[in-house]
Amino acid sequence: ELLGPGDVVPADLRLVTAEDLKVSEMALTGEPEDVSKTWKIKANSEKLTPDNRVFSSCPVTNGRATGIVVAVGMNTRIGGIASLMTGDHGQDHSKDIDQHGRHHHVTARRHQCCKCFHIPHSKETPLQAALNKFSNRISIISIVVCVIMFTAGIILKRHDPEDSAEPTALYMLMVAVTLAVASIPEGIPLCVTIALSVGCKDMVKQMVLVRKISAVETLGCASVICSDKTGTLTEGKMNMVKAYSGGVCYNVSGGGFVPEGRFTRSTDPSAEECSKDKTLFSTLLAALMCCNTTLIETKDPDTGNRTWTPKGNSSEAPIVVAARKAGVTEQEVSSCARVLEVPFSSARKMMLTVSDVSTCGTLGAWGIGLPKDTKYLAVVKGAPNYIVDYCGQCYDEHGTVGEFTKQLKDNTMNAVDEFSDEALRVLAVAIYPCAEMPFDESDDDLTVDDKFKAITANK
């Protein structure tokens, strides 16, 4: 099975090869951060998701890999979660395979219990437990009273006033059964359901959706709620809200993955749209050239609603959406064929791509001008403190190139610090136009690291 960026893992796989592979396991663990994977087997690994395995329904965000299918359908990890949600605990969907490929079977057995009264369950709400306890008490009291009434009637030889010939035992049995039926409070379930329905209605007014009506009472008893933020209090979507290019700071409006919003200067937010500023437009286009993520629009055939979904790395999705907001077209990106890619790694802290821009005089319709002899354009994207050290020149807001002095570097890092202080995740983008590759393209012995070092050695 060949996996690449944007693919969704079709089954549980044990990796055979992996090259800078990262997978989003949010569906399994709830964590938004991408998880690095390797084909190597790690001894004594007790992780919930082993490093040499990828699981069904998890999207690949970076790198490439091949693997062997070890579980499909309801036998996968996601299938086990589906079984738990549907309450299908009795079936053997828990077969699993560890990182070494060994099979393990865990069969859930239903426990049969034959008792007259309700057996408490761990998932009961306090109200359900109280009602069940009350019902058990009523049942016991009713049985005891009926037995006493029946015994007393037999001893006193009570007869039916309308039919004295009827046996005493039959008459007292009818009295005891009638008393038992009358003692059962049949209206309690109806009253409880009405009360919970009113509470559910009030919760909806407070923008709270309740799947099970019994949860209304439990939520009302809660005084402290501990919740994981991502996916519960937030949507788990990153958006570009600020940008810094050519010494100018910009605000970006809009939310979600819908490519609708405006770029305005932070010094004058009420000013006109600034997405066509040369350096800003060029930065967004260059960043998009260094991404493997795409933005797909889908339409619901029933409602007609349109939704936008990114396919690929969650960290690149804000860049793709922001580029669309600025008016960067697919043609501008596709016209620059990619000839080299160096995937992101934790050691380099950046990703590099080289594209053929021999037919482009500028970096996009509104971007900066490229040198006349430019044939290739190298773009790096990653950690700001690493990328800034590689840069020797920079563009100002008018698209004029000049020396990247220490003062300008300090200004750039100050902007990065300001963004970080606002709890924003910061990525830097840099370009290097070149007339030819700074290495021998025909040399098959060159590794990816050798090519990366050759390109980044030129400031």
User: What is the CA–CA distance across the termini?
Assistant: 40 Å
- The fraction of residues in strands falls at 15-25%
Count helical runs. Answer: 12
General form: elongated
Largest sheet: 5 strands, antiparallel
Residues in helices, as a percent range: 25-40%
Strand tally is: 18
Which value, in Å, is the CA radius of gyration?
34 Å
* SSE sequence, one letter per element: EEHEEEHEEHHHHEEEHEEHHEEEHEEHEH
Structural class, by secondary structure, is alpha+beta
Low-confidence stretches: 90-97, 103-117
> pLDDT average, as an integer?
82
Q: Short description, anyone?
A:
This protein is α+β, with helices and mostly antiparallel strands and 459 residues long.
How would you explain this protein's 3D organization?
There is one protein chain. Helices cover 31% and strands 20% of the residues. With 459 residues, the chain is α+β, with helices and mostly antiparallel strands. The strands form six sheets. Strands 1, 2, 3, 4 and 5 form a five-stranded antiparallel β-sheet that branches. A hairpin with a 5-residue loop joins strand 6 and strand 7. Helix 3 runs antiparallel to helix 4 (168-182) and helix 7 (278-289) crosses helix 8 (317-325). The longest helix has 31 residues, at 126-156.
